[in-house]
Amino acid sequence: MNSERVVLVTGGNRGIGRAIAERFVRDGYRVAVTARSGEGPEGTLTVRADVTDAAAIDAAFTEVENTLGPVEVVVANAGITKDTLLMRMSEDDFDSVVATNLGGTFRVVKRASKGMLRARFGRVILISSVVGLYGSAGQVNYAASKSALVGFARSLTRELGARGITTNVVAPGFIDTDMTAELPEETQKQYKASIPAARFATPDEVAGVVTWLAGDDAAYISGAVIPVDGGLGMGH
Question: Is residue 134 among the annotated active site residues?
Answer without folding.
Answer: no
